[in-house]
Amino acid sequence: MNRDFARYHSPKSLPNEKPNSFASWLEHHRPLFWRCVPFVAIVCFLAWCFVSFRSNFTWDDAEPEILNQAWRLANGGSIYRGVESPPYAFAAYTPLYFAVTALLLKFTGLSYIPAKLISFLAALSIGWAMVRLSREWNKSGRDGLWAASFLFLIPAFLYNSARCHVQMMAVAFSIWSLYFFLRNRWKATLIISPLFAVLAFYTKQTQVALPLAMALYLAIRNRRWFLPYASIGLVLGLIPFLWLQKISGGLFFFDTVSLARLEYDWWTIPQIFMHHAGPILIFIGIAGSLLWQRFKDGTWDAIDCYLGCLFFITLISLGRLGAHGQYVVELLVITLLYLLKTAGLPAIPRRDALVSAQILLLFLYAPAFIFLEEGLWDISANRASSKIYSLIRERSGPVLSQQNSFSLFSRGEIYVQLFHFSGLSRAGMWDQRPLLNEIDKRGFCCVITEFPIETSPLSDSDNERFTPEIISAVRRNYKLLESVYPYYFYVPSSTLANLTKRTGFHRFH
Fold it and tell me: What is the DSSP string of 197-238?
């Protein structure tokens, strides 16, 4: 009997049999769904690139802040700095992604392309690790390739696969650290695996679930290797920490730890989890039930420990202000890896209908995410960007913008990271009075927002980026020159008065 037929067809789903329920229909069509996953994933990724891939603009406000720091580094500047004087910008993450991006920017100039390419290559390397692990577990890399394709149907992974952000590279290092740990050879487990875990940490400082889980596993199951693993990891991690502290004058720890402690709200965790991890809740539920059973039976191993620790750490992290899809990327990857090892994904015995339902859900949701949930606003922002850039080029002086691509690509740097510094102001860790004075002096040539500054109340997203004092100061000193959906372009009141006097009309679209 053909292997594919034997694996993906059960006696209940022979070709001539008509399904008599929705569950039977799902089970019957699972081979078709399974085969379509790689092709649908490629189409979704290309569509997402159409929405998100621009060399000098992004509607994601984290991307310009990260590119800004890489650009500073490429030009010999310091990325770990104090918050007392402008520009009010600092690197909120450990430096590896900034350094790799900065190296490429020396050849390309200021552009999002090399930064996004790094994230895409990191996503591909995650897929490669899944194929390698699948070969070891199931004697074939085919299932790992299928799982890697499936990842690109999950919006949170898809979103970050072509994003100027540290997350994908950090997760890739963690997955390869797991791969070498599971080799169960002392060089791979005790030297190469800790090295990759340290690389993950120095890409993003919250990337700690893997080394904690592996240390816990060794402490319980292989105490002879626990001390070497922990010692080598600590030494490898301590050396760059001391060096970074020295060259930054102690600001490395201050920026990546002290300034990173923003507001926290436990009540946001369920909503954020369901929004970003909910699209594969069926697979998470299957993995959770298998995890519970394996711990009960005492048959758990390193990857069980990893999934358990990661799930707990991910949930805790989702309460932080600004938690977004990148916070669940590692959980998504490990959930699929766990099912590859313990359940034989994509063929999970006695759960064929659930697998089909999960695939069908993403076949419907991924395109809706790309073109409706994100695309409608994002494509409008892409179209508006050229008009906003032309308005900025008519003026000189610093730019205060909610979307900092406009500041970065028109002035070569960001004057203020509004999200971070508004949060620091609310926490009493930053004095916003110098910025308010600059607004009152009408020192900015323009202010660009994603909402009409005259209107209240503001959305939660807008309030996260503008303190009430900044909003009041802008209202007093700036007037709307032009609206190009979804952006509002404000200029100093005196500038608008002079323009109106000269031209006799107020430009407004």
Answer: HHHHHTT-TT--HHHHHHHHHHHHH-HHHHHHHHHHHHHHHH
Tokens of 498: 């002079």
What are the structure tokens assigned to 71, written together? 């650009």
Q: What angle do CA 130, 134, 136 make, to 5 degrees?
A: 125
Q: What is the DSSP letter of 256?
A: I
Distances (CA, A) of 34 to 24, 28, 146, 201, 366: 16, 11, 8, 35, 16
Residue 339 contacts residue 348 (beta carbons within 8 Å): yes
Give pTM, 2 decimals: 0.92
Comparing CA positions, the residue from 167, 73, 164, 48 lying closest to residue 112 is 164
Residue at token pair 């990893």: 306
CA 253 to chain centre: 22
Q: Are 153 and 366 in contact (CB under 8 A)?
A: yes
Q: What residues have CB less than 8 Å from 427, skipping those under 6 apart?
A: 261, 262, 263
How far is Cα 383 from Cα 401, in angstroms, rounded to an integer? 17
- The DSSP line for 381-394 is HHHHHHHHHHHHHT
Contact criterion met (CB below 8 Å) for 287 and 335: yes
Burial 369-379 (b: 16+ CB within 10 A, else e): bbbeebbeebe
By CB neighbour count within 10 A (0-12 exposed, 13-18 middle, 19+ buried), where does 193 fall? Answer: buried
Q: Which residues contact 189 (CB under 8 A, 6 or more apart)?
A: 180, 181, 183, 225, 229
395: region left, alpha or beta (phi > 0 left; psi from -120 to 50 alpha): beta
Mean pLDDT by 10 residues, the chain (509 residues): 40 44 70 88 97 95 97 96 93 97 98 98 98 93 96 98 98 98 94 98 97 97 96 97 97 94 90 96 97 95 97 95 93 98 88 90 97 94 97 95 97 96 92 96 96 83 91 96 96 75 49
d(CA 63, CA 36): 32
Distance CA 442, CA 445 (A): 7
Give the strand order in the sheet containing 399-401.
399-401, 446-449, 487-492, 478-484
Number of H helices, E strands in the chain: 26, 4
Q: Which long-range contacts (CB under 8 A, 24 or more apart) does 432-435 make?
A: 432/467, 432/469, 432/470, 434/85, 434/86, 435/86, 435/88, 435/470
Q: What angle do CA 118, 123, 129 make, to 5 degrees?
A: 125
